[in-house]
Structure formats: C-alpha cells, structure tokens
From TrEMBL:
GO terms for molecular function: heme binding; iron ion binding; monooxygenase activity; oxidoreductase activity, acting on paired donors, with incorporation or reduction of molecular oxygen. InterPro entries: Cyt_P450, Cyt_P450_E_grp-I, Cyt_P450_sf, Cytochrome_P450_monoxygenase. Pathway: Secondary metabolite biosynthesis; terpenoid biosynthesis. This is Cytochrome P450. Heme binds at residue 505. The keyword Heme applies. One of its GO terms (cellular component) is membrane. Its cofactor is heme. Keywords: Heme, Iron, Membrane, Metal-binding, Monooxygenase, Oxidoreductase, Transmembrane, Transmembrane helix. The chain crosses the membrane at residues 25-43. It comes from Ephemerocybe angulata. It is found in: Membrane. Belongs to the cytochrome P450 family.
C-alpha cells in the first residue's frame, strides 16, 4: 500500500469507512448548530438592530436574493439612497450583514486594520473539502493539504503570512518592466479578433454578439501572457478547451450551492470534521448534481494546472536559452521562486494555484469591463468619434505603440478610468475576524460586511451631483478636492474598482493596458452601434448584459461596420507621409 503524507491511495469503500455512522454524526452536529443559530439570531438582540436598513425580504434568505439578484445593482443604489453609507441588511437565517460605502470605514477595513478584516470562509474554503481527484496520479503528485480550495492555496485564497509571502513574490512579476514585454502579445491576439470581425462584415454591417468574442480574447491574452500556452485561439468554429469550458461553468454552478458554500462547508473545514478524502466520498454519494459538477470542474482545473506546472518545471530543470526567452508570468514566477530564500519560497501547490487564480481573475472581470465600455461607446457616438480621432492622430507608420505611447493617450485613458469608475463589475464581502470599533460602530467578531464598490465609486458627496453619469471628460481636468480629501483606499485612481491594501488586485495595470490595446485596435477600424433590441444589465456575481432577463448566458449584440471615413483618412495620411519622405529626399 502506498502512503503519501498520510493519505492512502488504496481504494476505500463507503462501508469500510463507516459512512452510515459518519452521516449520523454530521447530521446531528449540523442540526444542532442550525437550531442554535436560528434561536440565537431570532430571539436575542443584535448590535446592528439600531442601524437603518430594509425589512427582511424572506424569513429564510433575508435580503440575499435582492442583494445578489439580477436587479441587485438597483437594490444597492436604493440602500445607500434611502438608508445612508452604512446599512443593515439580512442574510440567511436572520444573519445581520453590513452594506458599506463609507470612506472612513473603508480606510479601516482595507488599510489601518486590514489584518482584522478578511474574506469570509465561504469565499476561501469554497468546495475545499471536495478537491481531491479520484486518480492516483494526482494523489501521489500533490496530496491534498487541509486548506486546498477551489483554486488551491493561491493569492485570492490565502490569508495572513501566507498571503503576504505570495504577494511579495508576485509583485515583481507584475512590474511595469515585465508588462511592457507582454504588450506585443496583447496586440497579436486583438489582431486575430480584428480579422474575425473583418470577415463577418465583408458584405456589409452585421450584428455580432460581442461577449463571447471579448471573453475569448481576455482568456487567450492571459493564457499566453500568464502561462505561455494557448487555450482559446481566436477563430470561428474553434473547439473550446475543456479547461476553459470548466472555468466558464464555475460561477453558474457555484451559485447553485449557496447554502452549502456559505454555511456548511466553512463549518466542516473550520472544525476539521473528517478528511478531504472522506469529504470527496461523501460528496460523490450525495444526490446533488451541482455538487458532482463542481467536483468535476475542480478536477479538470487542477489536472490542467498541474500539467502546465510540470511542463514548466521540466523546462526550467533542462535550462537553456529557449527557457530564458519565455516571458510569461508563470515562467518568471518559477524562475524567481528558485532564487528565493527558504522562508520566502512558494511550495509547489502554491505555484500551481496561481494558474487558475490568474486565469479566473484576469478573464471574466476584464472582459466584463470591456463589454461595458463597448456598450457605452455604441450608446455615446460622440465619445466614440472623439476617441477614434485621438487614436488615428496617434497612429505611427513604424509599428505598434509601446507602453508609454499608449499611456500618453489622454482621452483613451479618460474613457478607461470613467468606465472603471461607473461600472464596477462586482461587490466584495469582508468578514471581521476580531471585534473592532470602526468610529461610532462596533463590529462584532465574525460580522460579514458587503463592500459596495459601485456605490462608493458613484458617491455624489465625493464625485458631485453628476456622479452617476458617464463623463470621460471629468478626467481631463484636475479632480475636485472632494475626491482627493475622501482618501478612498483603492489602489487605482481614487476608486475601489480594484480594491485596496493587501486585498488589491495585483494585476490592475495588466487589465488597464489590455483594455487600452483592444480599444486602440478596434475603435480605429470599426464603427459600433447598438441594435434596436433593448439591452438589460444583470447582476449575477459580475455585471453582465443580456437581451432577455430570463436568459442566463451574457449577450451583447452590436452592429459592427467599417468606420465610414477609414479609407479616406488612411489614404490622406499615406499621401502626406509619401510627400514628407519625398521632401526629405529632395533636401
């Protein structure tokens, strides 16, 4: 019998494990815990009862489905409009949840006392118990640690010293110097999308569903720049890689396991009930298709991530010039990790975990932001025309713009910043790990706080009475004192879009430059118009468009055509350039 870190690879039947007794034990503890939780929350007063907020939407779910439902953004706005900057809402089983947009509170949460406020366990331990693959290969290669999560122990799934150590190792990897070397890849992938669109409109303007294409572009960019591997080439009738298919299903399937994710799994993991292998066997035995699917998704993601890591590790061990020339994030991270001291070095499973972490973090959120930009530009034709003019004026005959040249395009920068201000893609939950006073409000240990990124970014006391309007021009002048004095603890442009402090998005510059490159290529060549059909924006974890409120799949149909004056502008510039060259020859 082969033993790996105390985990046996021998096939174990449910009867040998005494599964009946295990179920009885778990059910008894779970029932007692739920009963006590219900009694305590409904019969005893809570410190937040005096904080204003809405009535419970449901006896069981509270306001949960209003906060996270398709119309969640409208509900968020009504909360801050009717009740202020700190609002009491209800979660499952009468749990009190604070909904916050107050800048002073955010400073405490994200900067001053950031170690006391962490992501909730249901975020970090999401299907933690079920990540053990059924194959002997994965068990022997990477036995499960007690804290294996859906992405593994990666940057978004770790806390405390482990998180700080990972961030210390990853910060240099996302430096401007490294990112400059990735910009040609940004352009190459965007050119593939450009060619697809040109073929689609060869016979005239066409309606094109852009969400799927922009998602593929974001995935392909992070695949190449992050792992040096192509997962989703930009071409029509291209079969989707199983890793990409699994990642796309992660959110929709995970949302069906809300109760399990929020209440049961954190409790099982925190109190170390059973082993990961036992959890997986129980999961396979339970009659829940969504739970089985999430286990399958995790297996695929972990297996593919492990395969990529093994290939990189072998290449590093072999050495050579070819390896040195690879500039992808994972390759750089692994090379730096080899040089790190023992106390700073990342373990194998930590490096593997960064793969899915990067893929998920850099694809959905970036494509969601760009989809919103495209919709706004199609809606505001004057802004689209002005942006096109700036891009055409900046065009060079000697190749693509570099990092500095893209950063110097002020209107392009303003369009990006304003969209990221007004169209934050998500909200983020934070949980207090220790009782702490935020001025005038005592936060009991274990309190869940929902940080409203969009409402913070659109606070009229900070951004003025037009804070809810999309106005790129506001970034072309010095920002008002109200913005500077608010001291928003965000890492990007006085906004909370990319969070702040130790929780800040490490790749925000990567995302910003990716958006700029896509706009630079597409807006110069194409005209984008909205179709006659109405576009709805739904909150489904991320903000996504749809033409049908009952349709789960995001859709943004846009009328795409060649820019009307593209050929004329290009012809005039070509003549001007030729005359300039001839004048130099004459001189």
């Amino acid at each position: 019998m082969l033993e790996v870190r105390g985990v046996s690879t021998t096939m174990i039947s449910l009867n040998n494990l005494g599964i009946d007794n295990y179920f009885k034990y778990v059910y008894a503890l779970l029932a007692g815990w739920l009963i006590w939780g219900v009694v305590r929350r409904f019969l005893f007063p809570h410190p937040f009862d005096k904080i204003p907020g809405p009535a419970k939407g449901s006896f069981i779910s509270g306001n949960l489905f209003e906060v996270f439902g398709p119309n969640g953004l409208e509900f968020h706005h009504s909360l801050t409009k009717n009740y202020g900057k700190v609002v009491r809402t209800f979660g499952l089983l009468n749990e009190r949840v604070l909904f916050i947009r107050d800048p002073k509170a955010l400073q405490y949460i994200f900067l001053k006392d950031q170690d006391l406020y962490q992501q909730p366990n249901q975020i970090l331990l999401y299907v933690d118990a079920f990540t053990l693959s059924g194959t002997q290969k994965l068990i022997t290669h990477h036995a499960n640690r007690s804290a294996r999560k859906i992405f593994g122990p990666g940057l978004i799934s770790t806390l405390g010293d482990q998180h700080k150590r990972q961030r210390k190792m990853l910060n240099p990897v996302f430096s401007i110097a490294h990112m400059k070397k990735m910009i040609p890849t940004f352009f190459a992938v965007t050119y593939d999308l450009r060619d697809v669109l040109l073929r689609k409109i060869a016979d005239g303007p066409q309606e094109v569903e852009m969400v799927s294409w922009l998602t593929r572009v974001a995935l392909e960019i992070i695949s190449l720049c992050g792992m040096g591997k192509s997962f989703s080439p930009i071409a029509e009738n291209q079969e989707e890689h199983r890793y990409i298919s699994s990642m796309k299903l992660l959110g929709p399937v995970g949302r069906k396991l809300l109760l399990l994710n929020k209440y049961i799994l954190p409790w099982i993991i925190n109190y170390k009930i059973g082993t990961p292998r036992m959890h997986r066997l129980v999961a396979d035995a339970l009659p829940f298709p969504s739970l089985h699917k999430i286990c399958e998704i995790i297996d695929v993601m972990h297996e593919e991530s492990t395969h990529i890591y093994d290939s990189k590790k072998k290449a590093l061990a072999a050495g050579g010039k070819a390896d040195e020339e690879q500039k992808d994030i994972l390759n750089i991270l692994m090379r730096e990790n080899l040089k790190a001291s023992a106390e700073n070095k990342l373990e194998d499973d930590e490096v593997i975990a960064q793969i899915s972490t990067l893929m998920f973090g850099a694809s959905d959120t970036t494509s969601s932001a760009f989809v919103r930009i495209l919709w706004l530009l199609a809606k505001h034709q004057d802004v689209q025309a002005k942006l096109r003019e700036e891009i055409r004026d900046a065009k060079r005959f000697d190749g693509e713009p570099d990092y500095e040249q893209l950063a110097a395009l002020t209107y392009l920068d303003a369009v990006c910043r304003e969209t990221l201000r007004i169209c934050a893609s998500f909200t983020t939950p934070i949980k207090g790990t220790n009782g702490k006073d935020i001025p005038e409000i005592h936060i009991p240990r274990g309190t869940v706080m929902q940080i409203s990124i969009q409402e913070t970014n659109q606070d009229p006391e900070i951004w003025g009475p037009d804070s809810g309007e999309w106005k790129p021009e506001r970034w072309l002048s010095p920002l008002p004192d109200s913005v500077l004095n608010a001291r928003i603890p965000g890492v990007y442009s006085h906004l909370m879009t990319f969070i702040g402090g130790s929780k800040a998005c490490i790749g925000f510059k990567f995302a910003e430059m990716e958006i700029k490159v896509i706009l630079y290529v597409l807006i110069e060549l194409f005209q984008f118009d909205l179709p006659k059909k109405e576009i709805f924006w739904k909150f489904t974890g991320l903000v996504s468009p749809s033409v049908d409120l009952n349709e789960l799949k995001p859709q943004l149909p846009v009328i795409v055509s060649r820019s009307a004056d593209h050929f004329q502008k290009f012809y005039c510039r070509a003549i001007a350039y030729t005359c300039f060259v001839e004048s130099l020859k004459t001189d």
